Amino acid sequence: MLAKFNGIKISGVLAVLPKTEYDYDEETAHFATPATRRLKRVMGFSKRRAALSTTTSSDLALYGIRYLLENDLLKKEEIGALLVLSTSPDYYIPPMSNVLHGELGLPFDVVCMDISQACAAYVLGMFQASMLLEHMEDGKKVVMCTSDVLCRKDPEWKIGEPSFGGDAATITIMERDESAPTAYYSIYNDGARREALIMHAGGFRMPRTPETAIPNHIVDGKVRSYDDLWMDGSAVFNFMQKEVPPAIEEILSYSGRTKDEIDWYLFHQPNKFMLQKLSQRLGVPQEKMPWNIVENFGNSSGSCVGVDIAYNLGEALLTNRYTCCLSGFGGGLSWVSAVVELGNVEFCRMIISDL
Questions:
Q1: Residue 142: which residues within 8 A CB-CB, separation 6 or more?
Q2: Which domains does the chain have, with CATH numbers?
Q3: Sign for the pseudo-dihedral over CA of 272, 273, 274, 278
Q4: What would the pLDDT profile of 261-272 be if each residue is shown by its tens digit?
Q5: Relative to the CA of 163, which of 170, 177, 215, 271 has its CA 20 to 30 Å away?
Q6: What is the CA radius of gyration of the chain?
């Protein structure tokens, strides 16, 4: 699906990271091998952030929204909709957006909407927020939140398999602005390949039990339980190599931009190796496609693109404008891309929470 929106802009981006940092070398010290060292070099694993074992996705998102309210970067009366994208909700019922609505004490007429989405969440959220804004009262804003705590644990925990995952949330403010350039989107899904990235237990098809927690399945060369996230590494890599490059070519053509006219390629960051291969396939300079998020903070699933914006563009977005190509790809399988103008925002920053 291709779509475009006129007169809608991002006016602020906030990334929220947990306070606890884990070092890949420390986590692998008890069984370090040439393979683990090669994995670090090739995949770019170094440090990551994981939330406390008691922290929920709404806690991180709420921390970020309250930060904006307390620092006069957002007003309650401006909020027309709360849009939350996550794969680790607090509850089945109620939706996480309603949890945030209640904690913030917002008016009854604020739209609350949750979308279950993983790696493509940030760009898909921009698309959904744009659709909401086309039908909302002038002056109202959409507060788009991505948040996941798939990696949370006790800080004292040291022994176990190393992870490239990280926890994070992003709060993005979107609003109408008739002078904003056209934004272009492409959205694709292939549910037939959904088992390439899947967590079997936890839903109604397979509730979690003591038996589902037993690690007695070999998945992609590793021992897994049904409670774990299963990833077919080869299938995911082949999917990325096959589907993402033509989607990027298509969205560039649809937007009337050449590759050279794109200032930044801000993509989901599963690992450095995948991004290097994407850069080569697309013929895009590596300097325009950062992969330092997974290196410094881990793969935060749907929040990766937002963290990428906050970390790599940051305060430069306060006074500058950039033509950016965004892309999220993974669980679903889904791949969503956009060409948008980012800049002259009211804020773009990263904060460390105490969660």
A1: 80, 81, 82, 83, 129, 132, 133, 136, 173, 174, 175
A2: 2-176 (3.40.47.10), 183-348 (3.40.47.10)
A3: positive
A4: 999 999 999 988
A5: 170
A6: 19
